[in-house]
Specification:
The complex is a heterodimer. Chain A has two domains: 166 residues, Rossmann fold (3-Layer(aba) Sandwich), CATH 3.40.50; 120 residues, Rossmann fold, CATH 3.40.50.920. In chain A, 38% of the residues lie in helices and 20% in strands. Chain A has twelve helices and 17 strands. Chain A is globular, with a radius of gyration of 21 Å. Chain A starts with a strand and ends in a 9-residue tail after the last helix. Chain B is an alpha/beta fold. Chain B has one domain: Thiamin diphosphate (ThDP)-binding fold, Pyr/PP domains (Rossmann fold, 3-Layer(aba) Sandwich), CATH 3.40.50. Helix content of chain B is 34%, strand content 16%. In chain B, strands 2-1-3-4-6-5-7 form a seven-stranded mixed sheet, sandwiched between helices. In chain B, strand 1, helix 2 and strand 2 form a beta-alpha-beta unit. The chains are: A alpha/beta, B alpha/beta. The interface between A and B is large, with 47 and 39 residues.
Chain lengths: 363, 259
Amino acid sequence: MTRRLLQGSEAVADAAIVSGCRFFSGYPMLPFTELLEHMAKKLPSAGGVCINAESEIEAINMALGAAATGARAATGSCGQGLALMQEAIAEAALNELPLVVFNMARGQQDYFQATRGGGWGDYRTITLAPRDVEEAVAHTQLLFHLADLHRTPVLLYGDYVVAHTSVGIEVNRLELGPLPEKDWALDGTMSGTGRARQIWTWARGKPNTPGPGPDRAWKSIAEKYEEIARREARFEADAPEGTEVLVVSFGTTAPFVDRVVQELRTEGMRLGSFRPVTLWPFPGDALAEATKGCRLVLVYELNAGQMVDDVRIHAADRSAVRFIGGVSQDNSGMRQGDLLAVDALRDRVRQAIAELAPSGGSS
Amino acid sequence: MSATGSARGEPVAAFKPDLLQSSEHELCPGCGHPVAWRLVLEAIADLELSHRTVLVAGHGCYTQMMKLSDLDSLQCLHGRAPAVATGVKRMLPETAVVTLQGDGDMVSEGLHEVLHAGARGERVTALLFNNGVFGDTGGHLTATTVLGQRTKTSLEGRDPEVHGYPIDVARLLAQLDGTAYVARGAVNTAGLVARTGRMIRRALEFQMAGAGFTFVEVLTMCPTGWFVPTADGPDYLEESMMSTFGIGELKVPETSSDV
């Protein structure tokens, strides 16, 4: 492959296809629409199937069915459509089905939806939040891998910036290591053998092959998510020794944070940045380490304050945590508003430091 | 129907279909679902689809069938089986894919999914076991509860002024260009059991021939949910449901003759 100028949605579609995605279903909704369009265009010639479903509920249940056959399957929407998909995300989790879900969100207000979910039962959704198109391409491939590795639904928290930014990029398949056989997948060949397979959230099994039942099955799934929480937390930190003010952000706001941190460092301020790459599992241990000794932990997210909860849970000193984000939506409703700007962020960081009486946050 | 017990000269009740791992079920006395499901298992075996069938089952009493049958099975969310089956069949086009839902599952919760699967012409066989009541929850009104029928949520009988009218989903499906075969049978008499078995078999044959979406509704007894004596189930079905839901093939591919 050669480097091409691609819109983020097309690059993500290419990444899904090189990952082996062979089933995609979706219901058009901006800014997810272009991903669906690119999959509809590209997937058939790759030997796959793309369906323009009649609702988000249909879309995710179709993808769940495809995943049950062992195929790599994906669906997506933006936060509003994801709201309709919550039941099936939980179902996939408790059926231990690998499924990739793209949230090309209209902003950053779906953090709770992604990390807490709205389905039923004890389940979690591994969620990666890319900072830009390049990372979204890598995350897409990683998500298909993690979904198969852990047999769980996974989420890409993208947004308008990821979906609509065009970049020069080469999408190559990443080698991510071996995966277990999908011996649980249904293809009908075990029917009539006396050992037919079953996928059922209650896991009660069949007379010849009794299952563990809901109590044992759900305990085992809960333990799996504990293991994932220990193994899969990812983050990016730029917090040198002596950092006094740490700015925490996720997704496409992070490049703005990096810029402001670099600028204010030249003025002598001891600033650092921290970004959870996985929103779940939240890299709590790493955040605790990075916030040690910080006088201020500033949380910049474009919502009414969602990730700030996780930061308060894990920060070394929760009294140092300040929320400097806020609801900020473009008038189209499709993307972030005025607060996604270097000037606005710089002002808020300066103000927070100034309010830190008596000596300020700088050295 | 060469493989049925009666054809082998055995009492039907003594003959267990090969695709049933156990006949020990938890369904109520007088329930019509077991005989209806037996017809499905016999048809799959007769058509030599035993090693190439996936069952996609919804939520309800018939979840029992999924548990007992020797079929690769996926139990899915209430109402969503036709959407789930779409994903299964598109990935396994040579495999027989059968969905099993009750009237609450398919017609109340999942009308959207079944109609769109029909319109898309998904090459699956969708089965509706219609007893006009939520049996599993204990006798509540569904979208197919007939006028006048008493349930725990229509205590004086279904009144169109209060509860609206029942939906004939077979008739809706028959109108869609994507559907190839639409039929309605029942299991309240021996004759209808045999005829319904032929309908299910034809539906599977048309599925495997790639004709389009195939659908068989089976009217089944639920004396528990109807609050009638067990032995009255078959007659009650005829008296209450059959005037609303007529028996027969509503749609067959043009080159075929009726059963």
